[in-house]
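Sequence, please.
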C-alpha cells in the first residue's frame, strides 16, 4: 500500500478503561436517550433541537456554549428537548482543511488521531457530567463510533456518507436515534433506502469482527437541501417537499416515520442567519397540516457563541473555524420564539 502506518491506535475498550463513565453519567445518558427515543417513536410531542457549533474546535468554548443551554432547556422543557451538537469529525469536500477534533485536538497543530480520540471521549463525558446533556455527533468514520457508543444521545449520517454501505450497516447497530441526510444530489430515494437499510438486521464486517446488527427502528430522515448540476442551491424544507416525504413514508414499510430539518447547509445556502426564518416556515407548515406536525420531529441548527466564522488562526473565542454559525444572542431568541410557536 502507498501509505505509512504511523502507529496502532488503542481499541475502544482500552480507551473506555482509561476514561470510564461514573454511575451518574451512565444514568444521565440512559435517561436522556429515552427522552430522545420517545420523540422519534411518536410517544412525545416535544420537538428535538439538535444545536451547536459546526465543529467542536475548542473544548472550553464548546463547554461554555453547552452550559448556556442548560438554563434555556429548563425554561422550554415542556415543548423542546435540546440535544447539543459536539461534532468531532468535519467532512471536507476536497479533503483539505480542518478535519475536526478527532484529527486535530489543537487546530493549529499537526494531526494527532490518538490524542484526538481521547479528547473526543473526554469532551463528551464532560458534557454529560457537567450539564446532563447526552449529545449528538456525526458518524463520519464508522470505526470511531465504539469510542463513544456509551455516551451519544443522537447520531447523524452526513450527505456524503449516506450512500456508503458501511455507514448504513453501522447505523443498523446503533442503539440511539440516527438521522440519515439526503445526499448532496437531493435524491430522496437514496435517503429512504439508507433508512431502510439502517432499520434492517445485517451481518457485516466491523473492526475486524463478523458482527450481527439488530436494526435501528429510530433511523429517520434529515432534509438539508441540495445543489444541482449547475451549482445552484435548492432548499427542501418547504411544505410541498414535506408532503412528498410523507407520501414516500406512506409507501414504505419503514417504522417510526420522521424527519429532522437541517436549517443550515443547502437549505439556507450556508447563511446561518436564515435559520430562524426556516424554522418558523416549517413550524407554520406543521400548524397547517396535522400530518406534517406528526412527521417533523426536530430541527438541526449550527450555532456558537459568536456570529459567523473565522480562519483557523483567527483567535476569536467561540467563533466557528468551519461553517458560519448563528451567535448566542440570536440563538437564545430563536429558541424562545420556537417554543412559543410550538
Amino acid at each position: 500500500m502507498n501509505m505509512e502506518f504511523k502507529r496502532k491506535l488503542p481499541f475502544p475498550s482500552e480507551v473506555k478503561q482509561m476514561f470510564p463513565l461514573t454511575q451518574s453519567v451512565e444514568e444521565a445518558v440512559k435517561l436522556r436517550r429515552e427522552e430522545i427515543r420517545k420523540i422519534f417513536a411518536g410517544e412525545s410531542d416535544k420537538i428535538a433541537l439538535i444545536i451547536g457549533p459546526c465543529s467542536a474546535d475548542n473544548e472550553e468554548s464548546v463547554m461554555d456554549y453547552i452550559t448556556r443551554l442548560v438554563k434555556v432547556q429548563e425554561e422550554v422543557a415542556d415543548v423542546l428537548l435540546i440535544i447539543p451538537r459536539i461534532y468531532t469529525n468535519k467532512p471536507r469536500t476536497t479533503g483539505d482543511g480542518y478535519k475536526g477534533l478527532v484529527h486535530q485536538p489543537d487546530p493549529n497543530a499537526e494531526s494527532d488521531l490518538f490524542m484526538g480520540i481521547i479528547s473526543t471521549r473526554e469532551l463528551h463525558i464532560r458534557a454529560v457530567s457537567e450539564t446532563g446533556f447526552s449529545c449528538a455527533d456525526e458518524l463520519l468514520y464508522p470505526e470511531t463510533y465504539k469510542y463513544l457508543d456509551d455516551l451519544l444521545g443522537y447520531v447523524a449520517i452526513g450527505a456524503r456518507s449516506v450512500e456508503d454501505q458501511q455507514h448504513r450497516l453501522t447505523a443498523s447497530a446503533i442503539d440511539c436515534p440516527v438521522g440519515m441526510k439526503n445526499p448532496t444530489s437531493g435524491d430522496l430515494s437514496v435517503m429512504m433506502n439508507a433508512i431502510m437499510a439502517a432499520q434492517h438486521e445485517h451481518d457485516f464486517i466491523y473492526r475486524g469482527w463478523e458482527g450481527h446488527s439488530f436494526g435501528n427502528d429510530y433511523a429517520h430522515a434529515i432534509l438539508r437541501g441540495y445543489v444541482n448540476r449547475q451549482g445552484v442551491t435548492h432548499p427542501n424544507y418547504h411544505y410541498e417537499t414535506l408532503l412528498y416525504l410523507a407520501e414516500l413514508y406512506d409507501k414504505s414499510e419503514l417504522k417510526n416515520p420522521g424527519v429532522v430539518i437541517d436549517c443550515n447547509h443547502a437549505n439556507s445556502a450556508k447563511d446561518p442567519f436564515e435559520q430562524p426564518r426556516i424554522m418558523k416556515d416549517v413550524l407554520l407548515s406543521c400548524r397547517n397540516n396535522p400530518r406534517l406536525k406528526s412527521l417533523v420531529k426536530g430541527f438541526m441548527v449550527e450555532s456558537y457563541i459568536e456570529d459567523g466564522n473565522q480562519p483557523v488562526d483567527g483567535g476569536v473565542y467561540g467563533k466557528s473555524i468551519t461553517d458560519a454559525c448563528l451567535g448566542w444572542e440570536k440563538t437564545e431568541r430563536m429558541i424562545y420564539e420556537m417554543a412559543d410557536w410550538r
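Residues 12-341 form a domain with the TIM Barrel fold (CATH 3.20.20.70).
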